[in-house]
Amino acid sequence: MTIHKPVLLEEVIENLKLKNGDVVVDATLGGGGHSREILEKIGDEGVLIAIDQDINAIEEFKVKSEKLKAQGKIFLVNDNFANLDKILADLKIEKVDKIMADFGISSDQLEAERGFSFQKDAPLDMRMDQKGEITAEKIVNDYFEEELARIFSEYGEEKFAKKIAREISKQRKAKPIKTTFDLVSIIGNSIPEKYKHQKIHFATRVFQALRIEVNGELEKIKEFIPKTIEVLNKKGRLAVITFHSGEDRIAKEIFRENARGCICPPNFPVCRCGNKPKIKIVNKKPILPSAGEVGSNPRSRSAKLRIIEKL
Predict the structure, then answer these.
(1) Domains defined along the chain, listed by start
(2) Least buried of 38, 86, 162, 207, by fewest C-beta within 10 Å?
(3) pLDDT at residue 223, rounded to an integer
(4) How confident is the model over 99-146, as pLDDT tens digits?
(5) What are the strands, taking DSSP E only, across the chain?
C-alpha cells in the first residue's frame, strides 16, 4: 500500500486542461496519485502511459490498475523518462496530448531499504533503478575528496561541503562507509553544533546530492524536456514539478529557449534566422503549494510547478 501523497495534485490537473479521450504521459508514476486522477479526467476513451524506473512502483500500480482499466487504456512502462521518444515509438504512439512529471522522490522510496532516508539505518544504495551500477556507497568511498565537495555544493547547496568531504575522506581510510547512519554520523561531526538543530535536518542536503549523482537526475531532465516538446500535439500541455534549484533552472531555461522567436542580433532590421517559438509559457512564475498542503505534507514545501503549451 502506497503512503505517497501526490504534490500539487489539484494544480496539476487544473492546468493540464485534461479532457475525455486525451492521450497522456505520466512520466514519473511513483505512488500513482497523479495517474489515478488523470484516468478520472480522460475517461474510457483516454490513454495513459505511466512510466517509472522503479519496478516496485510499476508492480504496485499494476494491482490498482486492474480496478481502473474500465476508465481508460493503461500502458505501464518500467524505464527512465529520458527515453520518452523510444518508449512512445515502441508503443507506436507518435504524439500525445498532455505530459506531466514530478521530479521528486516518492515517500514509498524513502520507506524502502535503499538508503534514501537518513532517518533509518540502511545500506547506502540510493538507486531508483536497481539495475544501475553506481551506488551512494561507491561514491562516498571511491570519489576524490574534491569531487565529493563539488557534488555536495552543486547538487545539495551544502555550505559545509568541503568540511563534510574532508571528514568522509578521513573516516573511510579507517573503515568503509556502509550505511546511512555511518554517513549521518560523519556529517554531524563535520558541522557546527548550532546547525544540527535547524528546521531542515542537517543531513538533508548531502543525501539529496548523493541521490542526484547516483541517478544522474539532472542530465536526464535535460534529455527529457526537449523530447516532450517534440512529441506534444499542438495545444498540448506539459506540467513539471521540481524540488531543487538545479531542476527548476533546467526547466526554466529550456522553456525560455523554446518560447523565443527571432534570435537575430538586435541591429538586424529584418529577421533572417526564421526562428519561431515552439511553446508558450503558461505561468511566468512557478505555482507553489498552499500553506494547507505544506502543513499536511511538509515534503511539498520546496515544490514548484511550471506549465507550457505547444504552439
Answers:
(1) 9-108+217-310 (3.40.50.150), 113-215 (1.10.150.170)
(2) 86
(3) 98
(4) 999 998 875 655 567 888 888 899 999 998 888 889 999 999 999 999
(5) 23-26, 47-52, 73-78, 96-102, 232-242, 279-281, 304-310
